[in-house]
Amino acid sequence: MWQRIKTAIILIIIVGIAMFTSKTPILFIPLLAVGVTIAAHEWTKLMPRWRHPPMFVLMVLVITLASLWLQGTWVWWWIASFIIWLMALSWVSQFPTHTNWYGKKLALMGVVILTAAITAMFYLWQLSAWWLLYVFVLVWCADSGAYFVGRKLGRRKMAPNVSPNKSMEGLAGGVVTGLLVVLAISVFMLQMTGMALVSFVALSLVTILASVLGDLFESMLKRRAGVKDSGTILPGHGGILDRIDSLLSAIPIFALGFWGLQQMGWLVII
Questions:
Q1: Would you say residue 104 lies in a domain?
Q2: How much is the pTM?
Q3: CA separation for the pair 120, 20 (Å, rounded)
Q4: Which domain holds residue 55?
Q5: Is residue 268 domain-resident?
Q6: Tens-place pLDDT, residues 78-115
Q7: Does residue 170 form part of some domain?
Q8: 86 exposure class (CB count in 10 Å sphere: 0-12, 13-18, 19+)
Q9: Does 269 map to a domain?
Q10: Residue 158 backbone dihedrals phi, psi, to 5 degrees
Q11: What is the arithmetic mean of pLDDT over 217-223?
Q12: CA gyration radius for the chain?
């Protein structure tokens, strides 16, 4: 446990410095580049045997960095990612009976999921590092609420073939915890009212549910690939993908919804 805490503290310090030290991306982009490189390497371990893993890692890194500079492509990456996560709902519910998704197509899915997540992180960071931190806090609080409520009250399994420890009671606890965070921030800090409040709370709720799906999806991948953790780079935690699985789905979906609300004039950032 102490090892997990030490690793978490170090990660928080590194990410916090990169996010808040400078308004220029001089530290944040290198952090994203390192993160996506490690995540892509771990993704190759979850796919069927890939002939040249370094080529896949390089491909993801190049596409991601190129997409960061081509802002006009961001929304399309988020939409493509959203479609994949919609399909993942069916894959998780039918596992292990149907695993047609497991194959070479995982390479394309990995490119889309990782690129969408990285561009979404950069988009929110450009708006304000606090918006990116908001999604982090939202997902982490919901996950913590689900863990503690599920541990005490969990009875009905949510996806027993994918993650036996997750329960419907835990899911409810996570949603309630997350919504308390949303209401506290949107009402008391952002002072939202009317349509802005309703739409922001709804988007945050969808983001919480998406984070659960991301967690289940990675658990399903690991079970199909026959591995316990995606990697060992984070002592006490496993791999990068093990730590950001919820964020891979939550961040691009939040960014897409946030962008859409801004386009409709329902959410104005001052």
A1: yes
A2: 0.94
A3: 17
A4: 2-263
A5: no
A6: 999 999 999 999 999 999 998 999 988 999 999 999 99
A7: yes
A8: exposed
A9: no
A10: -85, -45
A11: 94
A12: 18
